[in-house]
Every structure is written in structure tokens, then in C-alpha cells.
TrEMBL record:
It comes from Novosphingobium aerophilum. This is TniQ family protein. Residues 633-678 form the SpoVT-AbrB domain. It holds the Pfam family TniQ. GO terms for molecular function: DNA binding. It comes from the Bacteria. The lineage of its organism: Bacteria, Pseudomonadati, Pseudomonadota, Alphaproteobacteria, Sphingomonadales.
Length: 688
């Protein structure tokens, strides 16, 4: 304590309370000595008696005199005094330098609940940008609770810290709004940056990244205020006003500053992501695009009067954004690299599925996709063939591609973002399958005279086993050759004879899951063994009107195949022309559902020989017990004999030939010759 500096001293010593403001301490001493005005003490230190009687405005030269008058230690008083810097831009706040605009001295703000606990004025209540009490978590008030008074509290009279300065109404009767609980944790950390307790400041700084830990608490609070407009744009103007209404602070300023703590804690990437979200949420570019708050912060930070430390850390962030082009790619580049669609990639970036980075490209903020996030999609983006194209190249129905993918003969490609979910395969796997098949089918063998594509027509009411057949040809398990022509590959495969249908590869495959497979109308026609050109006339009957390019579920196609059978399949299984098959169905009284379509159940029941030849074997048609249309032949007046299909097959005359007649006691016997002009007969004969 100094001596012989002040003209007089107080009669009793009043101890300073940790964290107490200097104005509150002087007012408390004046009230304890029943002095009429606070200026009685501050005038000793040279403060103006009328304009600025606050102890906070005392010059540094007057502090020794004030300490001698109050009979307190000069170092302790200097620690509580907001000493003005030489350039008058910053103030001392318990060892922390704060911008002068961050403290407010003329008005006496208070927390009614805190005054009930201890009637002294906390220095934190002088923070202009954070008018809250972190002890009781209420917003500060500054007016008398007496309706007849209601005046703003100042530092002039000395009736007491907890009494109105004008009418002596207890300030503890005032009502204060509570700070929302969601903001309290963030505000507690922000207050901790400039808290009078050094241990509290150290603990708060330990929560920040190393780059911000090197800064002072006042600079960090200044940085938070600079970022507050990014949380709420309405906070931009009031933050720079000398007078701040407490209502506006509670509604706008405090929530905006509270929202900046996560940006500080995750610096700098948290701010990067927040700017990305702001641009994504903006409906027009002016809100936060080329001329938004983010843009103004990044391009005008050195013109806003920020302290050098804050300007440097923002400048480093700007430099990082200008270099972000090296670690990010545009949507257009991502489309080229991944094969995705623009709208899908934008949606994935906005939803967070693709990490985003923001870049300052000249005078424009651009949101980019993190380059490392698309590396996997780039690796998978190889040339591919869509389902229909792959089926056309092999000459098989589209459902066969599903079979080949399941069996591992083809490799399915992941669907690029935004593309349809239809199956596609890698072009290299399709080309490898084609090459392997052509190498196995290269040898011409005249003994292989049966077309596999036509042979498949004997398999009805279920998908054809194309995958297993092609895999057998690929490995050499099935001997086949390739006929000349321009038709697709699978339609020119030749096998030995009809007996191959007895092989296990032609059996039904119940393990195949068709639940999610869609087939086209041409595939449905192939399953039902109806020629695709003829299938169109059945569409309205089978599916109803409309939907010419309609996709059909495999379950529906299989149901149709098990319900109906056409004359084409009947002819293939009986070895007859489809017209003869139709005549047989009519003669056997098979139920007709539609012209050319019959009930499969009725057909297999009334024509049992068709069912016996469903899966291969040479057609053997039994001789009817009594004369029927299959045993009747017509003779023209010129003597030409027109044999029915049954007799032609029975005598082996499918390709024509010559016959001989022998007359016996039982009638005339017709015998087929082995070849035209030959005199040797065959075992096939028919008694006429």
C-alpha cells in the first residue's frame, strides 16, 4: 500500500472480492462510508466529477493515489483496473487484453439472482458482447424493477450495489430471462477465454487446437465475434454498435456468439464445413455465395480493424482455401471421373455422403468434393455394358445376364451415382466371355447339326439355362461349334443332337432368386416359346392395354408360362409344324384360352406324348388305337398322296423321299426307301 499519495484515506479497509469490477468496488466502498457520490473517491485519482466519474476511466498515473485512498495494494488494484493501452485500442481485463469495444462502463448491468448470493458487481458483467451471468445463467438487466422508477442503473450515487441508484429499490426484485440450456456449455467456454481466474483461462485454452492456443483469450473472443455473422447474419451490424440493447443481445448476439465455439474448437475444418453448409442452404448466391457473409469475411478481414493476431489467423485460413483446389474437384470433374450424374453427386455432397471442401477461387467461393472421397468410385469406373446391350452381344435374353453374374461368368458393376439401378457388367468381363466362347466354338464340325437356340424351345414354362450352357461350352464340358452367319453368337451355336437336353446343365435351377429381376416382353415371349413378332398380338390379352415398353416381373412371366402354352412350343416338343400342333390340340379338345394360346395343364393332360418329350429325346409318337386325323391321308384325282405329319415322321420322310407299295392278302403295304432311287427299303412301313 502506498503512503503520502492521496490527500485523505478511507477510515476502514474494504477487501476486494476476486473477479469484482473496479467500479463496483469503489461504489461499495463509498456506500460503506456513506458518501453521497462515487466521484468523492474517483476525483482523488483525477477522474472528472461530472463527465466520467467511473473508476474505470482513471489514468494509470492516478492509480497509486486511488490505491492509497482506498488503502489497498497497488498491484491488486492495477489487476482489477481496465488500464487503457497506449494506442487506446485495447483494455486490460484481469491480465487479458480486450478490444475497447468489448467492455461497457456507463450502464450498470446486473443479475438479480447473483446479487442475492453476494451483493458485489462482477467484472464479467461489463462484457458488452456477452451480457449474461455465468453463475446463475440469466441474461443481465440494467433497469430498476420499480414500475414508478424503471431507470437505467449508472455509477453516480452510492446507496449500494444491490439497490437502485435513484429510488433505492432492491435490484434483487428484478426479473431476468434464463439462458437456454443448449447454449450454456458453449457460453461457459467463451467466458472462460477471458475469465478473471487464470486457471479457468488455461483450462479453456486447452480445449482448442494448437494454432488457437497460441493466441490470447481476448483475440479468441474477437475471432468469435468476427465469425458470429456466419451463424446469424443479423448479428453483423449490432456487434459494431457502441450501444447494444439487452433485448437484441439476448435474441441475436448471444446465440450467434455461442454458435461460434464449435468453429473455434474444430478450427479450421469446422469453419470450412460450416461455410459449405451455408452455401448449400442459401437459396440465392447473394445470401452466401459471391457476396455473402462468408465471402466478406474472407476478402475484407484486413479492412475491418481486427487485431493483428486475429487478422493473421483468418489470413492463414484464406490461404488454405486458395490452395483447396489441389485437394478438391468440381462436380463436373467428378462426373467425368465416376460416371455419375450431376444431380446425384450434388445431393450426395449436400447430404454429407461425399465430404466437401470450400475453395476461394479468385473472387468466388466454390464448394468442391474431396478428391480422396471419390478415389474408390474412380477405381470402379471402368467401361461397362448395360443389361440390354450385353444380352444383345451374346444373343441371349436379358435374364441370362443375371444368371451369368450369379455364376461368376460376368462381373456386375456398381451403379454410378444418379444412374438407374439396372444391372450392368464390366465390358472386360463380357469381352473375355465372348473370346473364350469363340475359341471353343472355332472348330467346324459337320456332325454338330442341331441348333441350340431352337433346341431350347423344347424347354417351356421356365427360364432357359443359358448361364450353365455357356459356362459348359466355355470350359469345354459341352462340345459345340459356331455356324456361319451374322446372327448373335448364342443363336448360331450347334450341338450334336437332341440328346444333350438330357444333360444336368439343362435341368431346372431352383437356387436362382428371381424376386428382384425384371424382364422385357421379348424375354417373356422367349420363356413362353412364342416368337417375339407374334407375341405382340397376345399382349393385350396377357397384360391388358397400354404399356408397350412395360417391364414385367419374373414371377409374373413364370406364372404366364405355367398357365399358357402356344402352338410353337407344342410343335417343337411333338416334332410337328405349329399348324399340325394346332390341329392336334383342336382334335384332342384342348381348352383354348385365346387364339393360339391353350391351357398348359389341359394340353399336357390330353396330349401325354408332348409331356414325355418336354426335355429331349427323339420324338416318338405312339400309334393311336383307332383311326384319327393323324392316320388319314388324302389322295388327289391325279393320284398324289398327301401324308399327314405323323406318318411322315413314322416313315422318316420329314425331308421327303420315295416309297414303294406291296400288295398282300391283308391289303397294300407302303414302305419308305432309304434314299431317292434306292431299291432297299427301311424297317418303317405302313399298311394301307
Amino acid at each position: 500500500m502506498t503512503t503520502n499519495s492521496a490527500p485523505w484515506q478511507v477510515t476502514c479497509e474494504v477487501p476486494l472480492i476476486p473477479g469484482e469490477s473496479l467500479d463496483g468496488y469503489v461504489a461499495r466502498v463509498a456506500a460503506a462510508h456513506h458518501m453521497p457520490r462515487m466521484a468523492v473517491i474517483t476525483e482523488v485519482a483525477g477522474a472528472a466529477a461530472t463527465a466520467r466519474p467511473h473508476a474505470s476511466f482513471c489514468e494509470e498515473e492516478g492509480l497509486p493515489v486511488l490505491a492509497d485512498c482506498l488503502r489497498v495494494d497497488l498491484a491488486t488494484l492495477r489487476h482489477h483496473a481496465p488500464l487503457w493501452s497506449t494506442e487506446t485500442e485495447t483494455l486490460n481485463f484481469f491480465g487479458t487484453r480486450l478490444p475497447k469495444d468489448f467492455l461497457q462502463f456507463p450502464a450498470r448491468r446486473f443479475s438479480p439472482k447473483a446479487l442475492e448470493i453476494s451483493p458485489h458487481h462482477r467484472a464479467l458483467w461489463q462484457l458488452r458482447v456477452l451480457p449474461i451471468c455465468s453463475e446463475t445463467w440469466v441474461y443481465l438487466v440494467d433497469r430498476c424493477p420499480n414500475p414508478a422508477c424503471g431507470r437505467q442503473q449508472v455509477w453516480r450515487r452510492t446507496v449500494g450495489i444491490d439497490l437502485c441508484d435513484f429510488c433505492a429499490e432492491p435490484l434483487t426484485r428484478a426479473e431476468a430471462a434464463s439462458v437456454p440450456e443448449a447454449m450454456r456449455e458453449n457460453l461457459e467456454h467463451l467466458v472462460g477465454l477471458v475469465h478473471p481466474d487464470p486457471a479457468r483461462r488455461t483450462a479453456t485454452l486447452a480445449l482448442l487446437p494448437p494454432r488457437l492456443t497460441a493466441m490470447e483469450g481476448g483475440e479468441l473472443l474477437e475471432l468469435a465475434c468476427a465469425l458470429a455473422p456466419l451463424i446469424n447474419h443479423r448479428a453483423a451490424k449490432p456487434l459494431h454498435m457502441r450501444s447494444l440493447s439487452l433485448e437484441q443481445a439476448a435474441d441475436v448476439i448471444v446465440p450467434a456468439i455461442a454458435g461460434t465455439w464449435p468453429l473455434l474448437q474444430g478450427w479450421p475444418h469446422a469453419l470450412d464445413q460450416h461455410m459449405v453448409d451455408r452455401i448449400d442452404r442459401a437459396k440465392v448466391a447473394r445470401v452466401d455465395g459471391n457476396r455473402g457473409f462468408s465471402f466478406r469475411l474472407l476478402t475484407r478481414y484486413n479492412k475491418r480493424g481486427l487485431s493483428p493476431g486475429v487478422a493473421d489467423v483468418i489470413g492463414e485460413f484464406v490461404a488454405m482455401l486458395r490452395n483447396s483446389r489441389t485437394r478438391g474437384i468440381t462436380i463436373r470433374e467428378a462426373m467425368s471421373l465416376t460416371g455419375g450424374r450431376q444431380r446425384a453427386l450434388c445431393a450426395m455432397r449436400r447430404s454429407g455422403a461425399l465430404p466437401s471442401v470450400i475453395a476461394l477461387d479468385g473472387h468466388q467461393l466454390t464448394v468442391l468434393i474431396d478428391r480422396s472421397a471419390v478415389e474408390d468410385m474412380v477405381h470402379r469406373n471402368k467401361p461397362r455394358e448395360r443389361l440390354v446391350r450385353a444380352a444383345w452381344r451374346l444373343g441371349v435374353p436379358t435374364y441370362a445376364i443375371h444368371q451369368l453374374v450369379r455364376d461368376g461368368e460376368l462381373v456386375a458393376t456398381p451403379t454410378p451415382p444418379g444412374c438407374s439401378e439396372q444391372l450392368a457388367v464390366y465390358e472386360e468381363s463380357l469381352a473375355a466371355l465372348e473370346q473364350d466362347l469363340r475359341s471353343q466354338l472355332a472348330l467346324q464340325d459337320e456332325s454338330l447339326a442341331t441348333n441350340l437356340f431352337k433346341l431350347m424351345h423344347r424347354i417351356g414354362a421356365r427360364p432357359k439355362p443359358w448361364a450353365k450352357v455357356l459356362a459348359a461350352i466355355r470350359t469345354g464340358a459341352l462340345t459345340a461349334s459356331l455356324a456361319d452367319g451374322t446372327a448373335p453368337l448364342a443363336q448360331r451355336i450347334m450341338v450334336a443332337n437332341e440328346d444333350v437336353l438330357e444333360l444336368p446343365i439343362f435341368a431346372d435351377d431352383p437356387a436362382m432368386d428371381w424376386s428382384c429381376v425384371m424382364v422385357s416382353k421379348s424375354d417373356t415371349a422367349e420363356i413362353m416359346n412364342i416368337p417375339a413378332p407374334n407375341f405382340s398380338k397376345y399382349c393385350d390379352f396377357l397384360f391388358g392395354p397400354g404399356g408397350y415398353f412395360r417391364d414385367i416381373t419374373m414371377e409374373e412371366a413364370l406364372t404366364l408360362g405355367r398357365t399358357y402354352i402356344g402352338t410353337g412350343e407344342m410343335g417343337h416338343r411333338l416334332g410337328l409344324h405349329h399348324t399340325a400342333a394346332r390341329h392336334m390340340a383342336e382334335f384332342r379338345k384342348v381348352e383354348s384360352r385365346y387364339p393360339g394360346l391353350y391351357s398348359r395343364e389341359a394340353a399336357e393332360a390330353l396330349i401325354p406324348e408332348m409331356s414325355r418329350q418336354a426335355i429331349g429325346g427323339a420324338p416318338v409318337i405312339s400309334v393311336p388305337e383307332k383311326a384319327s386325323a393323324e392316320m388319314l391321308a388324302t389322295v388327289s384325282p391325279e393320284g398324289r398322296l398327301n401324308l399327314p405329319p405323323y406318318l411322315r415322321r413314322k416313315l422318316g420322310l420329314d425331308q421327303g423321299g420315295r416309297v414303294t407299295f406291296e400288295e398282300g392278302s391283308d391289303g397294300v403295304i407302303m414302305r419308305a426307301l432309304a434314299a431317292s432311287g434306292s431299291s432297299q427299303g427301311t424297317k418303317a412301313e405302313q399298311r394301307l
